[in-house]
Amino acid sequence: MKKIVSVLLMMIAFxxxxxxxxxxxxxxxxxxxxxxVTCGKTSNLIFSYGVVSVDRGAPTVLVQKAKxxxxxxxxxxxxxxxxxxxxxxxxxxxxFYSFLVAYNEHPSCLNLVLGDSSKVVPVDLPxxxxxxxxxxxxxxxxxxxxxxHTGVHELGIGLALRGIYLHEGLxxxxxxxxxxxxxxxxxxxxxxxxxxxxKARRSASQEKEIAVLSxxxxxxxxxxxxxxxxxxxxxxxxxxxxRLVIRLVEMDNGRTVQLHVSGKRLLRVKAVK
Length: 273
Prior knowledge:
The protein is an alpha+beta fold. It is built from 3 helices and 19 strands.
């Protein structure tokens, strides 16, 4: 009887160890990119999307974004006696990068282009902050069939709403711009406002602006030409007595065209996949 109990205890212990090992196997190690830095030269980390978060393990490594761009990080050593440290980076396409930064008087590589790799880990960014998802949605909307024909024509410029779409928690407005004049229309911005129906047309105090998410530079609509613009936003609501105002603004405070969209029409939204 004692032998049977002993065997049972051994089996239970073995099972517990197996469960513990299985639990531990769920963990994975993120391998860090090795990066050499020195005092007299700049090392560049070039990402596919903009950098949204940077954390240094120690201040002995100097880090800054390159001027006029947000997808290049520049690294230097603060002094020759710096210890090896780490660097953590999150980019706008929801990816996490880990680096092991060490001092090297003569780095063999100064420019590192980061792409898809087993060392890259996905990060769950908030809705509207993942640039890759925003651009993917914009591409789907651009290919989707238009189903609206609400428009206005002012100052030789026609502005029409061709559709409102939903994709992964974001709202996309598909606009068509037609330039009936001989002068190019250089679009500076598209701005969206929720306004009361019966208030003054352009009273800022009676308008609530909706934040527009970026999909890249605005187009230039050549004279007697036309072009399309996809405008993504976070999902928002409009009260029955309100309407949406879509304002197309030309560069250098030039021509401005304004389109009103009723709350009822805003409910005609189609999902794209």
